[in-house]
Write a structure and sequence with these properties.
Helices cover 49% and strands 20% of the residues. It is an alpha+beta fold. Strands 1, 2, 3 and 4 form a four-stranded antiparallel sheet that branches. The model has no long low-confidence stretch (mean pLDDT 86).
Amino acid sequence: MLRLLKFILLLIVIIGATVAGTMLFLNRTSASTPDVQATPAVEAPAAPPVIQAPIFAELEPFTVTLYGELRNRILYTAITLRLDDEASRKQIQDYMPEVRDRILKVLSAQQLVQIQTPQGRDALSSALKTDLSRSFAAQLPGPRVEDVLFTAFVVQ
């Protein structure tokens, strides 16, 4: 029992010495810190600009018949619009029948050979963006469409 008591006492002394040594080391390190602070202060970097969350308008999928030279094909595509502001999203939602009509007209005018290439899909995206950015009513500016994203694109 006496041995256990001596062991516990020795353990407490070792832990105390470790804590005291650590505190002494940290105090010496922090004492040298004012020299560093005496140098001219460099301005802290400016806070990064707040990035606005993207605004998307997901549209119901489209199914269009593409007329080819040899045979007809079906295009199934889902489209999501990336918009610049909430007013554009509201305008897209308010004029959804006209939005879908414009998209269907552009999709049905496509040639099968063209839309099967990445460049053709990029051209289709640009055409849709241009068409959807036009005004839906004379007194309103057109919605600000940043990008047209294909979330599904299947030709059968």
